[in-house]
Amino acid sequence: MRDINRADWYAQYMVAEQAGKGAPVMNTSKLLVAAVLVAAIGAPIAGFVGETKGQSGGVRVPFLHGFSIGASGSQAELASLERANEWLNSPPLTPADLRGKVVLVDFWTYTCINWRRQFPYVRAWAEKYKDQGLVVIGVHAPEFEFEKNIANVRWAVKDMKVDYPVAVDNNHAIWRAFRNQAWPALYFIDAQGRVRHQHFGEGTYEQSEMVIQALLLEAGATGVSRELVSVDARGHDAAADWNNLKSPENYLGFERTENFASPGGAIPDKPRMYERPPRPGLNEWALSGDWTVRNDAAALNEAGGSITYRFHARDLHLVMGPATPGASVKFRVLIDGKPPGDAHGVDVDEQGTGTVTEQRMYQLIRQPKPITDRQFEIEFFGPGVEAFAFSFG
Questions:
Q1: Which candidate, 37, 95, 206, 319, has a CA 20 to 30 Å from the CA of 313?
Q2: How far apart are CA 16 and CA 28, in angstroms?
Q3: Residue 270, helix vs strand vs coil
Q4: Is residue 49 located within the same domain as residue 179?
Q5: What is the pLDDT of residue 51?
Q6: How far is it, in rounded angstroms, from Cα 214 to Cα 225?
Q7: What is the mean pLDDT of residues 199-204?
Q8: Separation CA 35–CA 26 (nearest Å)
Q9: Given pLDDT bands bounded at 50, 70 and 90, which one contains residue 44?
Q10: Tens-place pLDDT, residues 164-173
Q11: Could you tell me the residue range of the domain that residue 30 belongs to?
């Protein structure tokens, strides 16, 4: 959607609406509205597959990530909601239930940092426009196997205060019906059940909200505020420091990892004693201790194992959890060989101590400026930890 002055945008919309009352110019006016709504409904997104879009200092940065499951022959996107495994915060919603409503479908998975940074806006839109006819539906489509555990999803919905309806899409049936390929992804559906606009990844929040406003007005809603929401995102949800972000997302399983620097490389699916190199290069990582590197994660076999990562970003997050639900493992974080102090993330204290309790994303570092290359290390004081992915912000 091209940038236009907000007042001009509304003037165009109202001119179109008023002109629509007169038969001679109705079709032309509706074209104006369609232009404002960005009628690029079925734009292919194969080029977006992967975890990045955009540049920062010549290095790719995390913008969105995802994978293709294959196209579906069905064009009835809303009808696919009936294939959800389970619904949270709501009874099952059908196209009949949603008829006459403007619907915002948000594909998410609870460990995705890109979705976490988008979420404050989606939550604010759901609250602001619910009385004007907007229904927000979060489609939880898991990336990791543990995200298929409904108890984990329930925990995340409660912990993150996701209070709009959530359709659990463990089999990616809804994902395929929408021909989706990324987290996060927003689909804007009008009162007739048609997808009118879509957006992949973070950003363009003003344009997205303007599309919501236009669809509500088109549906006949009254009292639609022209003001845009303002969010105060903190902790895990805070916007990335894009200007200083030079480390892309990376996975720890052998199937998708990059820049593994332990001497001898990874031995898939077999326990092995690993060592870290004396000084990893930027965006390289290494294991130390007794680990098994699986296709999806690195699993710690004995206490005392550690992970080292050299990175350049304000924030460092690690998706990890206990291999046995309900178990806990204590850990300590160091940055450049010292406790993080005021560079600690929300999930550790100033001494760098924390505890793995749930299978989720942990924010371990949030450092003040100036941002430079730093060496991160996390040591676990017990076995049974599974580490899946690093992300940065």
A1: 206
A2: 8
A3: coil
A4: yes
A5: 32
A6: 11
A7: 95
A8: 14
A9: very low
A10: 999 999 999 9
A11: 1-36
Average pLDDT over residues 336-362: 98
- pTM of the predicted protein model: 0.82
Of 187, 211, 237, which marks where a domain is finished? Answer: 237
Q: Report yes or no: 136 and 126 within 8 Å, Cβ to Cβ.
A: yes
* Mean pLDDT of all residues in 25-36: 35
- Amino acid present at 127: E
CATH number of the domain to which 141 belongs? 3.40.30.10
Structure tokens of 200?
Answer: 């992949």
User: Under 8 Å CB-to-CB from 35, ≥6 apart: which residues?
Assistant: none
**Residue 249, token pair as written in the block:** 């997302």
| Residue 49 and residue 19 in one domain | no
Beta strands in the chain (DSSP E): 52-56, 59-62, 86-88, 102-108, 134-140, 166-168, 185-189, 195-200, 250-251, 271-274, 285-293, 298-300, 306-311, 315-322, 329-335, 353-356, 360-366, 374-380, 385-392
Q: Check whether residue 135 and residue 66 sit in a common domain.
A: yes
Res 130 pLDDT > 60: yes
**158 and 24 share one domain:** no
pLDDT of residue 119 exceeding 50, the answer is yes
Q: Final residue of a domain: which of 237, 265, 281?
A: 237
Choose among 63, 59, 47: nearest CA to 115.
63
Q: How many CA atoms lie within 13 A of 344 on its CB side?
A: 17
My answer on whether 158 and 175 are in the same domain is yes
d(CA 198, CA 107): 11
Are residue 92 and residue 222 in the same domain, yes or no? Answer: yes
What is the tally of structural domains in the chain?
A: 3
The per-residue pLDDT for range 372-390, each reduced to its tens digit, is 999 999 999 999 999 999 9
Q: Could you tell me if 3 and 140 lie in one domain? A: no
- Predicted confidence (pLDDT) at residue 262 exceeds the cutoff of 70: yes
